[in-house]
Amino acid sequence: MEYSVEVQNLSKHFKDFSLQNVSFNVPTGTIVGFIGENGAGKTTTIKSILGLLHTDGGNIRVFGKDPVKDRRLIGEDIGIVMEGSFFSPVLNMREIGSVMAKLHPRWDAALYEDFCKRFSLPAQKPVKDFSRGMRVKAAFATALAHHPRLLILDEATSGLDPVVRSEILDLFLEFIEDENHSILLSSHITSDLEKVADYIVFIHNGQIVFQMEKDTLLERFAVCKCGKGELSRFEQAHILGHRESRFDLEFLVDNAPLVRKAYPELLTEPASIDDIMTFFVKGSDETV
Amino acid sequence: MKTHPIFGLILKDFYSIRGYLIRQIGLLLVIYLIIGVAMKTMSMLPAMLMLGVTMSLISIFSLDESSRWNAYALTLPITPRDLVISKYLIYYGGMYAVGLLASLFSAAVDTVLFHNGEDAVENLILGVGGGLAILIIYSLVISVDIPLYLKLGIEKSRIPTTLTFLVPFVAIFPTVSYWGPWLANMDWSSVNWPVVILIALASLAVIVLVSCRVSIRIMEQKEY
Description:
The structure holds two protein chains of two kinds.
Chain A: E1 3-13, E2 18-27, E3 31-35, H1 42-49, E4 57-62, H2 71-77, E5 78-82, H3 93-103, H4 109-118, H5 132-144, E6 150-154, H6 162-176, E7 182-186, H7 190-196, E8 199-204, E9 207-213, H8 214-220, E10 222-227, E11 239-244, E12 248-253, H9 256-262, E13 267-270, H10 273-283
Helix pairs in contact in A: 3-4, 4-5
Chain B: H1 5-39, H2 44-66, H3 69-73, H4 80-114, H5 120-156, H6 158-185, H7 193-221
Helix pairs in contact in B: 1-2, 1-4, 2-4, 2-5, 4-5, 4-7, 5-6, 5-7
Keywords (chain A): ATP-binding, Nucleotide-binding, Transport
InterPro entries (chain A): AAA+_ATPase, ABC_transporter-like_ATP-bd, ABC_Transporter_VariousFunc, P-loop_NTPase
Domain ABC transporter (chain A): 5-230
């Protein structure tokens, strides 16, 4: 399997937070959803992949190249949408296009114009007068117009209304139609990831909890409900976390097929990515 | 046609401050033309325009900071070195272009309005020479300020960079009072001006190059 991004044992230490031995990869031709609670280390990892931070250990390769030493070469092949990091908002789309044409050797002015038309982005209006949705679309038009092979998106769709988000998700699926293209997508909106991601990477407290195919993940994980005090009865269930409500108890398992077979009377529901994240983050301290 | 990304970065900075720069220069031009006519000399105009341009260019750093441009730029086919060199080019290029044009303009206005069209060459030499001297002082100041902006950011560098502008002006007064009599009695015609200017420009070039190297190092060490 070919990888667009390979991260091995990445470590980065701050005063109050550390990334510890973070390892995962982005297989070429796939969309990888990168999830984790606020402060889990998603942005630090992405910044390390982009060569924006000096790492303390580990190895990162983007298309087999070093993100700091080969910055110029990698920059030609990637498109980025990072929340709050873009051109000065006093520029308009025409000016951004003129600048990018000088910055990117493979800049496709016609494609850029197509994206601007498709997203109804006015050419002469300064970006500062755009709505939040329009700004994100402007960032996407700019990220895609040089025919990148990899898109790296850090919270790119957060704060957007469902209509714009749906447009952006369609764009992802179009982009990925070419099997040489890949997307690393960090997002809090896990329902979007359920729609488009092929793999899910979950980071918690600076450590990778898992990287798994999304379909396998949704097949293996389930939320089970039982009465309070019954938990110890389900010996064959591999319980990752639990939470109590007033009337019953819910727990997350990662061996759902076996649990369904062993305890047919137990109420089990497919776990959403949100459930998995919540149980891990909130339930990790109470893991049975 | 393929161009070096530095030209794209310069264009981006120009677009970012174009409106502000034009307003600033326009306003200063009007104010100092009026003052010049009242005082019957345009000698203040180049200095004030250069100061105005330098101040306007600071806003590039401010805009870059607020839009987190450097982090975005470094994901493009751009290196920290490109970012730094483009800043030096736009800063020095902008200042020298405006400085020299303003010096020529003020010399021409002085000649036409206040010298009845006479002594044109002398006025030109004095005007451009004076402008060049101010440019050299500003160049030195900026060679200290750019690394400070890059290292500390606009907010934290506000006090030290203000001092770098104030110190040369404040230093002029004791210098003039101490050296004034000696300077006044000096035989200026014996000075080999071409050599003095050449040495001054060569020294300046070395200082600016060192400043640029320091700035590149700062940007390479920085985390975004």
